[in-house]
Amino acid sequence: MKGFSYLKNVATLELDTDTCIGCGMCTVVCPHQVFVLEGAKAVIRAFDACMECGACALNCPVNAIRVDAGVGCAAGMINEWLDSLNLRRRSGDGCC
Amino acid sequence: MPVISSSLSFYDRLGAWKARWGIGRMSYLVPPGLYAIGTPGSSDPVAVTANYKMSYDLVRQALTGRNIWLLVLETHGINVWCAAGKGTFGTGELVRRVEACSLARVVTHRTLLLPLLGASGVKALEVRQRTGFTARFTTIRIADLPAYLDNGQQAIPSMGELTFTLHERLVLVPIELVSALKVSLPILAALFLLGGIRFGYAEPAAFLPIVAWLGAVLAGTVVTPLLLPWLPTSSFTVKGAYVGLLWSLLLYFLAATGSLLQTAALFLILSAVSAFFALNFTGSTPFTSRSGVKKEMRLSLPLMAGAVIVGVVLWTVGLFGPLH
Question: Within the 8-37 window of chain A, which residues sit less than 8 Å (CB to CB) from chain B?
Answer without folding.
Answer: 8, 10-12, 25, 28-29, 31-33
